[in-house]
Amino acid sequence: MAEPLPQCYLNGEYVALRDARISPLDRGFLFGDSVYEVLPVFSGRMFLFAEHFDRLARSLHEIKLENPHTHEQWRGILEELIARNGAADQYVYVQVTRGMEFGRNHAFPAVVKPTVFAMASPLPVFSDAQRAAGLSAITVEDFRWGRCDIKSTALLANVLMKQQAAEAGANEALILRDGNVMEGSSTSVFVVKNGTVVTPPNSHRILPGTTRDAALSLIKGVMPVEIRSVSIDELRAADEVWISAATRDVVPVTRVDGAPIGTGKPGPAWLRLAASFAQLRQKLAGTPAYTPER
Ligand SMILES: Cc1ncc(COP(=O)(O)O)c(C=O)c1O
Q1: What are the pLDDT digits (tens) for 127-182?
Q2: Which of 115, 144, 89 has the alpha carbon at shortest distance from 34?
Q3: What is the CA radius of gyration of the chain?
Q4: What residue owns the CA closest to ligand 1's atom 1?
Q5: pLDDT in tens, 207-220
Q6: Topology at the third CATH level for domain 7-121
Q7: What is the spatial distance between Cα 216 and Cα 234, in angstroms, rounded to a whole number?
Q8: 293 alpha carbon to ligand 1 midpoint, in Å?
Q9: To test the ligand 1 pocket, which listed residue (143, 190, 207, 213) has its Cβ within 8 A of the most ligand atoms?
């Protein structure tokens, strides 16, 4: 993983990331009592800003933590952060915790002063070799909590799953529940069979992916789409499997548990979708930069 960019935002100030400090009593640290967002930035412009900040608002609401900022305030904070970090392609990470109190109580503090943190990092590179060969995945049983729709920083299960994939020499762990594939450890999942794109429905078991929704709008009208459960057998027998996340839009998975998917190479439907995503990014890069009101 590349080094994060040097400037971060912490509780109203822009500081060098190396100097940023929060208390060990912060509930994000003690309990994972916090939520987050990750959104890509192309040529200095945030991609799917409203979708990410609608989801952040929803995550905060679901954990009963007041949103510390309006969308416009968030936009202003992040535009400044992006500008301070060179305004090029990058991704922004935002985290809001329920703050700290002197003590450790599971129940919420009487007065909550949230910790608000944001940093920028270079976008991961999808190398030419990966583009030609596709990624590999393993399957794992779901042992996460029952509210995976909340983008919580309590990600230990996801961390262990991704590590299991890494130790198997794979790029992602696809999560199974009751014989169906839910999503990846940090990605949404799609399968393509006989020209139809299928992706599992959103539920408490799945994070509603912003990139998934953007991909679905690009695909609709071009290929048939079905939103329904995908069984492990369908996954293995698919012509194409894709995973999606904000930091890498949609990428092909060509091996699952060591066996090839379809031809074992990135398929034609993915190539078409990747071209549409590239166009969308180019369009965004051509729009005027947002200037926050000061
Ligand atoms: C568990 C999980 N599912 C899906 C996604 C993809 O969501 P998005 O496309 O909004 O990045 C993520 C991204 O972090 C994730 O952690």
Answers
A1: 999 989 999 999 999 999 999 999 999 999 999 999 999 999 999 999 999 999 99
A2: 115
A3: 20
A4: 186
A5: 999 999 999 999 99
A6: D-amino Acid Aminotransferase; Chain A, domain 1 (3.30.470)
A7: 19
A8: 31
A9: 207
